[in-house]
Amino acid sequence: MAPSAVREADIARLPLKTDGAKNGSTKHAEDVQMIESQDKTQFVLGCYRVLIADLCQQFNMGHPGSAMGMAAIGIALWKYVMKYSPSNPDWINRDRFVLSNGHACLFQYSFLHLVGYQNMTFEQLTSYHSDRWDSYCPGHPEIEHPGIEVTTGPLGQGIANAVGLAMASKHLGAQYNQPGCEVINNMTWVTIGDACLQEGLGMESIQLAGHWKLNNLCVIFDNNNITCDGSADIAMSDDTNAKMRACGFDVLEVEDGNYDVESIVRALVAARVSKDKPTFINIKTTIGVSSKKQNTAGVHGAPLGKEDIEYIKKSNGMDVDKHLHVPQEVYDFFREAVPRGQELEKDYKQVLSKYTKEYSDLAKEFNQRMKGELIGDWTKCIPLKDSFPSNPEPSRKSAGNVGVALAENIPNIMLGTADLAPSVNLSSKTKVDFQSPSTQVSSGPNGNYSGRYIHWGIREHAMASVSNGLAAFQKGAILPVTSSFFMFYIYAAPGVRMGALQSLQVIHIATHDSIGTGEDGPTHQPIELAALYRAMPNFLYIRPCDAEEVAGAWTAAINAKETPSMISLARQDVPQYPSHSSRAGVAKGAYVFVEEEGADVTLIGVGAEMRFAVGAAKVLKERHGLKTRIVSFPSQRLFEAQPLQYKREVLQYRSSAPRVVIEAYAVNGWERYADAGYSMHSFGHSLPRNDIYARFNFTEEKLAGKVKELVEEVKREGMESLRGEFRDLNTEYVRDVFHSPQGVVHDKR
Amino acid sequence: MAPSAVREADIARLPLKTDGAKNGSTKHAEDVQMIESQDKTQFVLGCYRVLIADLCQQFNMGHPGSAMGMAAIGIALWKYVMKYSPSNPDWINRDRFVLSNGHACLFQYSFLHLVGYQNMTFEQLTSYHSDRWDSYCPGHPEIEHPGIEVTTGPLGQGIANAVGLAMASKHLGAQYNQPGCEVINNMTWVTIGDACLQEGLGMESIQLAGHWKLNNLCVIFDNNNITCDGSADIAMSDDTNAKMRACGFDVLEVEDGNYDVESIVRALVAARVSKDKPTFINIKTTIGVSSKKQNTAGVHGAPLGKEDIEYIKKSNGMDVDKHLHVPQEVYDFFREAVPRGQELEKDYKQVLSKYTKEYSDLAKEFNQRMKGELIGDWTKCIPLKDSFPSNPEPSRKSAGNVGVALAENIPNIMLGTADLAPSVNLSSKTKVDFQSPSTQVSSGPNGNYSGRYIHWGIREHAMASVSNGLAAFQKGAILPVTSSFFMFYIYAAPGVRMGALQSLQVIHIATHDSIGTGEDGPTHQPIELAALYRAMPNFLYIRPCDAEEVAGAWTAAINAKETPSMISLARQDVPQYPSHSSRAGVAKGAYVFVEEEGADVTLIGVGAEMRFAVGAAKVLKERHGLKTRIVSFPSQRLFEAQPLQYKREVLQYRSSAPRVVIEAYAVNGWERYADAGYSMHSFGHSLPRNDIYARFNFTEEKLAGKVKELVEEVKREGMESLRGEFRDLNTEYVRDVFHSPQGVVHDKR
C-alpha cells in the first residue's frame, strides 16, 4: 500500500531531515530517514495485530480494538521518533508518552515489550488479565510500572497529565537550561481517542496547552470514530480540527493511520519542530483493523473470538495454529531501540558533564531537584507561634502568608489558582506568572516559562489533573500547589483522586470552606465534601482552627511526600488560641486543646467551628457549672496513624463523660470519634456571614444548652444510654428555618 | 451614541420584521420594530447602572460589575425579545432564561422587578445581601423563586441546564405539537461569561447543543474579557467564535454591548429564527461600565465605594444625593411587559383550547404531563418477586430489566448513558434516540426529537447537569434517568449535587460499583464515593443486594418526587435471596434479612457484599456454632427517616451481640450503625473479578474468622470492651497485599 501524504492543514510540508530540530539531535533525524521497507513494516503490523488479538483471547477479556488500530502509530513512535532508553526508564530527559485512552493499554505494553524494557518480559506481557497480583499489565496503565509515566483510565486524565508533563519540561528547561547545555528539552506525546475530546477535562487541558503555547506537546488523535455506543457521531458533530485550531494548536492529518507509518512519522517530526504551538495530529484509523468486526463497537472492549482470530491470522498471512507468537523478525525490527537509547543517554551524560563544569551552582541545584529534594529550607517559611497576631484573622489569610513565603523561597513550588487570586491570598508581590514569553496579557502582567505562579482560569478539574502531571515529571522536582474555594474541589475531585492513587504530592488550598462563607449561598457552602476527602485512601484532609494549626497543616502537607493534601480554610475571621493550639498536635491529627480534670464532657472542635466549642465551654462553666475538656481534631487520617494509647488518651473512650463533635458539615464519619454531634443536616443558605451560623443554631448558648441536656441525661442514666445511638443535637433547625413565610417547606435535608 | 451594526459572522443580515418566526407570533415581531428612542434608552441604562451600584453599596457587598455591563442585554431581552408573563411566572410556554454567570444575579433580579414580577417588590430587591432569610435576592439565583428557572452559581451549571431546558422544549414539542397547535415552542436564552467557556462542563454542554442542533437555544456571551485574576486572556487564548462554529453554533457579534440595544435585539431575533443551529451571540461589554474602575477585576465582586458611585451618578446624569432611586420613567419604559405577557397567555389559551378540541386524547396526556404526573402505571413495570430468577444475576442486569420496562411504558422517562450502553443494560429494543431528525449517524440508528434515549457521549458531568435542566422545565413532566459506572459519578458530582439542592428528581443508575468490577483496576473501583453521596443532603443513595431489592430501589427512587437518587449496582453476579430480601424493607432503608433468636452477632450486609454476610453466617453456624442475625442495609437516608423504635428493632442497639457491617468500601459513616466493620482501607487493584474479593480478604471463611474473634472477645469482656472504639476487622491485608516482589511497599492506604 503506497503511503499517503500527510496533509498539513496549517504548516508547510517539511522534509524528513530536520534542521534545528528543537527537541532532537541531528543524529536522530537522520535515523528517521531510514524508514524500513513496506514489506517488513506490513509484516510487523500483522504480527502485532495478531498478538493483540491473542492476548485478549487468552483469558477471554480485554480491549483489543484500539490497540490493533494504533499499531502503525506505535511503530512510528517507538521505532522512529520518540527519544527514550529501554534500559533506563528513569532517564530524566526521556520523551514522555501518555496513553490517555488508557483502556488501550495493551498497545503500550506490547511496544514496551518489543523495544526491550527489561521488566516487560513476554511472560509479563501474557499476564494481561491473568490473576497475577504483580502483573505489569493491569487493566489500565499504572505509574508504578517502568515505562508508564502516569496512571490513566478515567477519560480526560491522561491528556491533562500530558499538559502538566509538557509544562514541567518548559519550566525546568527555562529554569536550568543554558546555552549549549540543554538539560531538559524532552517532548511529550499523548494519544487520545474520541472520549478525551468529549470529556470537559480534555477541553480544559487543550485550552491551557494552546494558551501556554506548549510546542513541546503533541496530541495524537486515534480517530476511529467508534465509541461504546456506536460511531462517535452518535453524540458528537464537532469539526474537531477547526476546534483544535481555535484553541491554538497546529493541526496535521494522516489519512491512512492503519498502514502508512511514514506519514505518521512525518507528522510526528513536524510536531517536534513546531515553533510556538502544540500540535494535534488527526490520524484516521480503523478500530480492530483486519478483524471481521473491524470498525464496530464490538471490537472495543471484548475478546474477538476464535473464529475471528483465525480470520485475522489468515488475512495477515500468519499461521493459524500459532498462538501468542512473536517471530524473531519482529524483535529484529525493533533491535536498535536499546542501543539507540543508550547512545542518547551517553550524549546526555556529556551534556550534563559540560553543564556541571560550566554552571556548577546551577547544576548542583538541578541535581537536587532531580533527586526530588526541596531546595532551601522550607521550615523557615513556616512562621513561629510568637509571630502570629492575637487578633482574629481568616485562616485563609494565615495559610496565604505561609503559602506566599513558601512560593517565594522554595523553587520547587509552582502555585496557582482557578481564577480566585484575590480570594485565596496566595499571590506574592514578586511572583512571576507561568506564561509563554510571547503572550501579551491585556491586564498584565506578562510572564515566561520560568514563572511559578499559574493562572488556571476557571478550570478546577484541569488544575488538579494537570498538577498531577507536573508532579509526575520527576518525583519531587516540582511541588504543585493549587487553590480554589473548597466547594469547587467537587469539580476537581476526579483529578484529586488520581493524585492520591498515584501517590503524587500535590497540595490543595481550599478556602471558603463552610457556611461561614455566607452570602454566596448554598451552591458555595460545602456540607458533604469533607466526607469524600476524609474517606479517600492516601489523602490528607486537614482543617486547622487558627494560624498555629495552619502552620501544622502546611508542615504535614509538605512532609507527605507520597500523599496529596488538602488544607481546608475559612473565609471569615477565626480567633487565635496561642495558649491552646499546637502544630505538633496537628501532626497527630487530634490533640487535647484544653485539658480539664474530672470533665463532664469532651467537646471536639474542628476548624472554623472551634470557636463554638471554646465559647460553649465558657457558657457551660459560667452558667451551668459544668467542666469541659476540648479536643482539636484537624485530621482524621493523621489521627488514625497514631498508637492506640495516644488515641485513648485524647478521646478518653472509657470515661463517663460524653464526647460531642462540633462541625458545620454533615456528621458522617465522626461517629467513630464521638457520641454526639452538633452538625448540619441540610444545605446552607444565602445570608451575611455574621448571621448565618446563628441561623443554623451555631451559637455558644444554644450549643451549651444542648450539651448540658446531654450531660444531664448521661448523669442520670449513665453512658449506657448513649450506647449504639449516635445523638444528633442540632436537627430541630431544619423544620424551623425552612418554613418560609409563603408556607412552603423547603425540605433540603 | 449611534448604534453599531450586528456583524453576522455566519448568516445573512435579517430585517427586523421576521416572517415565519419559528418561536414567536408575527405580532411580537412587530413589537420589536418599535425600538424606543435613544435618549430614553440611555436614560434607562443610566438609572439601571446606578441602581446596581447602589444595591451593592447598601450592605457593602455584592457583584456589581457584570450586572452593570449587561444592562443593554437585559433591556433587549426583557423589553423586546423574550416571551414571558410577569403575572404568571409558571406559564408553561414561557421562554426560559438562565443566568449561567450566576454571581451577576442582581442583573436578573432588577429586571424581574422592573418588568413587574409581583414577588420582586422594591423592598425585596433592596434585601440583596441583607440578613433577610426569605429574601428573593440571594447571592445566586435560586430555583424556588418566581422568575428563576434554575439555581446557578457554580460555573458551567447554568449553560448545561439551558441545554436541558432547550432539549425539553424540543422533545415535548415533538411529542405533543400538532399542525396549528404548537403547545410547546418556547425559546431558551442563557447568558454566560468567560468562565462558562473555560469550565469543561460548559464545553461538554456546547458540544451537545451543537450536535443536537438545538436551534431553540441562544447563548449570550457577556464578553467583557475580565475574570477575577485579571483580563480573560491571562488564562485563555481561544478564538471563541471559531470554536463555537466548530461545535455547530451560528455565531453573531455585537460590537457595542454597553449601549447598542437595537443591535442586540437584532441578534436575538436572528437567534429565534435560526433554522437548524443553536446561536452564540458574542456581545462585547465593559464590566462596571461608567465606573471609574470599569474594565478591571476590581468591579467584579466588591462594592464600588461612595466616591465611585458619585462619579457614576454624575456621568449618567443622575442626582448624586438620591440613593436606591428608580424614576417613574424607568417603570414606564417597561410598562408593556405585564399586558403583553397577559396577551401572550390569552393567545396561548386559545391554542390550548383548539388543541383540546381537536386532539383531545393527546391534550389529556399533555395536561397530565404538565401537572407533573407520570403517564401510565409505572408500578406495573416493577417485576413481582416470583418473576425473578433464582440463579445469580448481576444487579445491573436486574436494574436494567426494570429500567427498560419503565422507559418503554412511561413517556415521561428520558433515559441515557455516558457512552456505556452495552454495560449498563438499559437499551430497549424499541428505543428511539433523541437526535435531530436531520442527523445521520454512521453506525445508526438515526433518531428524532421525540426520542427518549439519550446518547450523552463521554460526558458524565453534562449528563447530570443537563438532566437537571430536563427536570426543571416543568416539574415532573420529564423524569431523566442517567447511567454510567459508579466511579464516574465522581465526574458528575457537581451536577448531581445541584439536582439535590434544587429538589429536582433525576435517577442515576450507577453500575460496576465496587472492586467486584475486577480487571479495570483501581481507577474504576470506587472506595470513597458512597461516603460522598450518603452525606449529601436531599439525596437518596441506594445499594440493593438482589433483584428484589433492586425493585425496591427503583420504587423508592420514583416515589422521591423532590429528591434525586442513585441506585448502586454490581457488574458481577449476585445471588438472589427470595426468602429474605424485601422491597418493603428497602423503603425503610434497612431491615432484618435473617432473624435469629439469641444471636451472638448481627451482620449488616450491603449490596453486592451481602453474599459474604450470608456465607459467613453459614460458616459461623456450621464451624463455630455461633448464631447470626443478618440485616440488609441498602439506604442510610431512608433508614434515618424511620421512627426510633423501628431503628432499635432492626439494629438492636442494646443487645449484647456486636454488630458488624460488611462492605467493600471505606467504612466512614457506618460507625453510626455498627460496632465493627469489614471494609476496604486502600484503593483496589486490577485482578479478575473472580479473584479480587478474595485478595482483599473478602471470603466467608476469613470474615467468619474475624467475626468469631470479635464475638469471643465480647463474651469475655462484655460489650463495654467495644465502647467508643470502632473496630476495623480487615486492616491487615494492606501490609500483605501491597508488598510487591520488588520489595517496594505501595502504601495506598
Automatic annotation (TrEMBL), chains A, B:
GO terms for biological process: pentose-phosphate shunt. Its cofactor is Co(2+); thiamine diphosphate; Mg(2+). It is an enzyme of class 2 (transferase). This is transketolase. The record marks 63, 300 as: Important for catalytic activity. Its EC number is 2.2.1.1. Thiamine diphosphate binds at residues 103, 153-155, 224, 300, 488.
